[in-house]
Amino acid sequence: MNLNPTKNSNRATALDALRGFAILTMVLSGVIPYKVLPAWMYHAQISPPTHQFNPDLPGLTWVDLVFPMFLFALGAAIPLALSHRIGKGEPFTKILFGIGERGFLLGFFAIFLRHVRPHVIESTPSTQTWFIALLGFFLMFPIFLRLPATWKGWWKYSIKIGGWLAVIILLWNLNYPDGRGFSLSRSDIILVVLTNVAVFGSLIWLLTRNNPLVRLSLLGILLALRLSQTETGWIQALWNYSPAPWIYKMYYLQYLFIVIPGTIIGERLLSWMQTPEASTKDNKNWSSGRFWTLAGISVALIIVLLIGLQARWVWQTALAAAFLCGTGYLMVMHANNEVENLLKTLFLWATYWLILGVVLEPFEGGIKKDHSTLSYYFVTTGLSIYLLIVFFIIGDVFKKQRWMQLLIDNGKNPMIAYTGFANFIWPILALTGLEKVFIKITPTPWLGFLRGLFYTIILALLVQFFSKRKLFWRT
Predict the structure, then answer these.
(1) Is there a cis peptide before residue 49, judged by omega within 30 degrees of 0?
(2) What pLDDT score was predicted for residue 277?
(3) Which of 17, 128, 155, 388 is surrounded by the most beta carbons within 10 Å?
């Protein structure tokens, strides 16, 4: 595959929309009422009313789907980002340094964010705690904000150094309910996993960028390691070894089962973006109805898998998925141009990963997020691609990007979206007394869900505000 500088500098907005959808639904899952909604509104292994973790309880809910969707988007973005640097002629060593720098900043983000979460500082946050949470939010701006290229270098470095010094002072003076202060082991596990797969996924893509088959073959080696680590021996020792357990465990690399397929899709998106604009202007040989049917089939597959696997109608779900996949294949089998070929490739890859995941579903006691099963990795990969197809058809085929602009703007700024509620909106609601008002007027479970949805929309609009003004956090 040719990965030279892109001819078309447009962003992959469908990928931005997928990332935005993932991050906002991730936030939504954390702000809905606890213990009072149906089981499918929570992680499958933490079902109501007790919400005690049960690793033997199989199932798949929408909450289980949002994190792998974000991981898939991360993987798909790797070829787009690194090929741009390669295209600019950056030395290999500089690109390696950039990957390491990104890993360091993501690791710092995972640790610092956990240290300034209000309910981590204090189980019942006081006024001081809420202000510390707000301070933590604003201190991330000088560290992560992409500063204008027109600013002088010394001014940029002064801002960065000032931010780091302020963060160090804050962490030095914080104390926690366990009696300890700063601790490397106090971190956000989601961000720690992201750190691992971002670094290893980038390195793997960089070294195999001209041979995707080699990259996919590495999944076979990872699978062998995963299966063999249950037996006593050197593989188990390797699997459990970590020079820095607070930031790295080989267990986290299992999520490369999602990220590496994401890089394959990212390369295909990149190839489409490199196509000269003149050859893509009149590219809708398929009828509008066929495009919408394909989008509808993709949505139906997501819904069928979520409902069927959570309800444990496993073989019935497999049959329904097979019918929908077969119908979808009839929609994409005759592709006549670049856009249609892209959608055909996406649909076939999605179907392959979905079939693999469904066939593996009985293995390891059924699909589970925790502890994550092979079926979970592959089913969620397939469903992520199906949703990407939907966003691509809406935004790039029918040019209706405004329909999903809120998702796109949040997908461009996921770090602020991930941080914004707990460290900005929530403290403001608590300090102004609005939180108590909202809780009082939404006393029932489903009104509580609407309250969480309202909070998520407010966050989305806040992130959009920053994105429109080119205020992006970047690692």
Answers:
(1) yes
(2) 61
(3) 17
Predicted local confidence at residue 4, as pLDDT: 38
Which string of DSSP letters, residue by residue, matches 86-109? Answer: HHTT--HHHHHHHHHHHHHHHHHH
String of b and e for 417-446 (b: at least 16 CB within 10 Å)?
A: bbbbbbbbbbbebbeeeebeeeeeebeeee
Contact 118, 426 (CB under 8 A): yes
27 close to 419: Cβ distance less than 8 angstroms: no
Q: Six-digit token pair at 131?
A: 């202000």
CB-CB neighbours of 294 under 10 Å:
26
Residues of the chain short of pLDDT 50, as ranges, are: 1-9, 278
Q: What share of the chain is helix, strand, coil (3-state, %, to 5)?
A: 70, 0, 30
Give the per-residue pLDDT at 152: 85
C-alpha distances (whole Å) from 360 to each of 26, 168, 301, 373 are 26, 47, 17, 9
pTM: 0.94
CB 118 within 8 A of CB 422: yes
Contacts of 348 (CB under 8 A, 6+ apart): 329, 332
**Predicted pLDDT of residue 6:** 37
What one-letter code names the amino acid at 271?
A: S
Task: State in Å, rounded, how far the first CA of the chain is from the last one.
Answer: 27
What are the phi and psi torsion angles at 145 (to 5°)? -65, 135
Type of residue at 66: V
